[in-house]
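Hello Y.,

Per our agreement to keep a running log of every chain we model this quarter, I'm adding this entry. I've kept the format consistent with earlier entries: sequence first, then predicted structure.
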Amino acid sequence: MHSDTFASLSAEQRQRFVAALQHELPPGGVLSDAESLRPFECDGLAAYRRLPLAVVLPEDEQQIVAVLRLCREHQVPLVPRGAGTGLSGGALPHAQGVLLVLARMKQIVAVDPLARSATVQPGVRNLAISEAVAQHGLYYAPDPSSQIACSIGGNVAENAGGVHCLKYGLTVNNILRLRLITIDGEVLEIGSHAPDSPGLDLLPLLIGSEGLLGIVSEITVKLLPKPQLAQVVMAAFAEVSAAGDAVASIIAAGIIPAGLELMDGPTTRAVEDFVHAGYPLDAGAILLAEADGTPEEVADEIARITGILHSCGASEIRVSQSEAERLKLWSGRKNAFPAAGRLSPDYYCMDGTIPRKHLGHVLARIAELSREYGLPCINVFHAGDGNLHPLILYDAARPGELERTEEFGGKILELCVEVGGSITGEHGVGMEKINQMCVQFGGHELALFHRLKAAFDPHCLLNPGKAVPTLHRCAEFGAMHVHHGQLPHPELPRF
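Predicted structure for the entry above:
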């Protein structure tokens, strides 16, 4: 069965199916009328909206298994959803399917401060983990900008990162174990509480799989000791390219900051109006670099970083002198996306990665595309690991502007591939980037992805039509640009 083709249930069949769901879940656990479904019509990518057949809100594993059984028996597709903060349309509902919302599974099951681990359900908020273990002097390192709301289950689905992922890694680097429920209702233990486990290492396959392979019901995360001290350096530059050169120089010096973030001038000004962090408004770009560790380590790293920033032409350098000031400086970067809403009725957040050395070229080309498409674009980066977040500003009320925005965004992603990067860093593929997957990967690679999908979900019931395009779709898109496996920059990892 093709992943996008599911027979619509008749009114009678739909009624029977919803009744079967209601029988398996507690009162209020199944939503099926249009008014109740409306809040679930999209995730953070609000440009794409669709009502599901029904929404289910399970409270435990047994209820998930029951929902999966009914979907399998009736051949009804199922889309998992966490907090709905994803930015790629990965939790966009299927019109003939069930939306499985895991928000009610929000228990912190266990904390082991000696082993520095915590076991949690998928609906637990990212930040709630750090809050729960703070009494032990521990925290959970990955910190997406949406961490006050996003769920750890969604982080696993998208392999989320955050401003501190340069030093401490993405979600995949901070997960020890998963409980996975397959479409057949089988519960699998992937990984272990130990640092390693026997057999195939399936954690990297499942983390970032966007709900295509199974439903995660429990997660064991690594915890880290809270550093004794953290300080952030804010540096202003006249040009974005100079800030980019400073990033390269810091990394080349063997320094791996806890965070290394860049915002261009328009972003800085929008953010400053929003949070009043004290950013210089005349800068072409600002760079935020954080050092953490013992006071001695921090002092040494701050001195080295400020020296490099001076040599790269920083016009202003400020070092946080208190925890409150540090958090204030970071608050601007973490609020870059909502701040964009002050500049335009709508914005389209892109996500791609490039080798750091190509930052200047890529920014110049994005500026050219911005003029070509007649759409403003502001830029935010996880600069240390080359993860770009261009924000295209548009007005969906203007006819054709969304389509032009999507085309502009597609060109940015293709540019990332052209210079040896990737179409996604931490937001996933979802619906947003499925066409650009045809640019990133060749036919043999896509066929392998489909084989992996079939091994877990042979009927393509889990999140169908997302993340991995069919070869037919790629042919229609006209994006099968990779011939005979000859990728540009083949030495660079792509997935």
